[in-house]
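Bug: token stream looks shifted between consecutive jobs. Job 1:
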Amino acid sequence: MIRAVLGHTAMMSWGITLTDIKTVFLHALRPPPPKGTEEVIVVPPKIFVQAGICSPDERWRVRRALYGFQTSPALWAGHRDGTMKGFKWTHLGIQYMVKQTPEGNLWKIWTHDGKGNMLDCVGHVIVYVDDVLVAACEDVRKGFLGRLREEWATSSPEEVTCNGWVRFCGFELRWDQEGFLHVAQPSYTHELLERHGITGKRVAPMSKVGVPEHEENDITPSDIKAAQGIAGELLWLSVRSRPDISFSVGQIGRQVSHHPKWALQVGRGVLEYLASTPNHGLVYGPCVKDRGPGGILPIERHPHLIEAYSDISFAPQGGRSFQGVVILYAGCPLQWESGHQSFATMSTAGSELLGYTEATTMAQSVEAVLKDLKVIHGDFTFEKLLCGDNTSAISILTKPDGPWRTRHLRLRSTCLKEKLNDPNSG
């Protein structure tokens, strides 16, 4: 969801400002315990007793969503959302309001006519616990942040500029001089490199080395723990801003139990690749109405186009095939995956069809998020483009009939064929 908002923000040429709400949990009331149940009583801090604020035998009832209670995040979220639903303000003579979307952490800023009727969507707000990201033009951002400060104490707003990285929910953001938004994790990457003492560099995340056929000998718990650690560290990068290491990280994760030493070796190779590309990440900008790399697309890119790319490596180790899928919105990558297919197939065409089906499902999930971001009234459907390179699989999807030996593939891909024949079906 965050990548979708950032991509849409860059396409609209809006600005981004970040802030956080102070002592968030203490703003929410903790409901009294049900009758007949135990009540939580806490001991005051010793420094309060030493300062004479309270007596040594004094005890306190908890009336607020105190830090440490499992229910506090939910209590704060309910209080925050209920309060924000009433946010209305006027800035430079224009009336604004916010409205929550089905994606609970995403809000839209609307202009309204003073009677509660929404007119135009002019910005988005992402709220994650106490962190707040506002994406809109400067006047709208200032107006919203002013209204937010009327309700709660906040930190000094931090604007995303081209002068340095700004962090939000694990992402680091920066504009460049050409108006493109860079989304990466350079601080986390440098921290990883320093922690593991990486000095070498590589030009690729993984060399063409197969997984050992036999289980490693003399595996110790420390070997497995170390392999699990490096897999988790790299996974945080691969699922957020570095699709280029997704395949390698997937290989590492699958081998942490049976080949932990091999996994560690490959993991260090990925770290050496990161050492040569620490600032790499996603780049979002205005929609360029081209036909993709080399002009390969059959239509021009536009702000309502979702591209789904799928490719497979058929049974490289004699089992299930590998597939890679990436979803683009107006030319900007929003979602991706790399891994084993869910079951083995009997042909390349079968694997490709399975990959196309998975890509279509991912495109539909991205479309659902993008519809929450829409800034126009009324229902509309994004145009979706499915891209693959296997002529046999494409023929099965586009032709009404074929030989008997491919009938099982046509049956398996019936749902996808219906969607291709009727774009309005989703």
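Job 2, same session, no restart:
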Amino acid sequence: MSRAHLVIDQLRNLVGQSRGNEILVLSCETNAGDVSRSADQAGAVSGAVSDAISAASDPMGTHPVNPGSASTSDTAIPTRQAAVVVHHEPKTDFATMLLLGWSAGDVSPVGDVNLNEEGNGKPRTDVPDANLQEMDLIALATKALSGVLDPLLHERGVCFLQFATDVCSGRDRASQDAVSKDAVSGDAAPASDRHDALDTAWQTGMGLSHIGNLEYLSGAVGEADKSIDVLLRSSGKRDQPALEFRQAESIAQLAQVVDRTYLQTMDCPLMSRFRGATQTLGVYHQSDAYAPELWFSIHSGHRNSDDPSGRGDSDVGPAIGCLLMGKHVSGNPPSDNGAAPDGGDVISELVYMGLVPEVRGAGLGRQIIKQATSLSKSIGAQRMILAVDEANRPARDLYRSVGLQPMMRESVWGKNVAKDV
């Protein structure tokens, strides 16, 4: 599924919900000679959003938004319209950017001017500044958009803005970060990197920093459960302590454990610049998949009960990790006891699992995956999904070893709004 389709589905769901979601739609006009700004807020009004949904066709989300509101220019230089769409749920301190880019019909010409006559992707020598000119236009547009968007978010108590995009083709996180820094600082990038810098110009122009690349995995719960049983039997680590899973008593208590698992983490380590454990758990708490009965702290000890909830009496030490699961139910709303509606499907999500640095590398991750598949089976889930940082090789290898397969990839970007206003 393309990113445009994902965003369209998300917008449709938001418009159809009745819990006060707010959608901010901003647009501006710019050209090479000047920049004329007109940023218009369209709260939770379905009209502008419907236009964005119906016109969606570009993976970067370049949709016409309220085109009649933008000011006009008398200059003969072609005028182009940029737009951004942001979702904010009231009473939360974060917002999600859904769309960012040129409106449909104002797509970037770089794909044409940057190719030679054979179309083999080699830069044309007769238009050396084409990409740089395009980046200048994007810089003007993003300056106008962010100049209005950031105060609007600040007024609503938003501290963190996040955005997900397709991963830049052929570039790993380190090189993508390097290109982003060049774009922000204004330092001249090598000619071979200019197109990559153009790919990230919208994000860096809005003040966003690259946090990491995520890989989304999915697999059948039954098959994953069988696979992890085989791995546990064949691991040969008989001296491993049994893990005790105890339901979290409070978010505040669990946040202390999560904070410790963030130390030296390989899972989006740059996120710690923007969000602490308490804030991250608050985001999970707001999710439709939130299931507090599936949130556990992990302890090392000898279990004296077969109770799958982990509430049995045992001699355990302090928490050494955590396991957070979520539950997605399709079809009609679930019943009061959380059961899936008739004809509905349950999908479990491994939202987060982590261990403190002292116990990593001992193979305990297999036991946590076993608990995750057991919990998934207990709620009737047929499939399990999760996201992992592509740079976290040990975690990726573990998930794939139990049969989970990649579904999609995305780059995650973010910024602290309060610092930018």
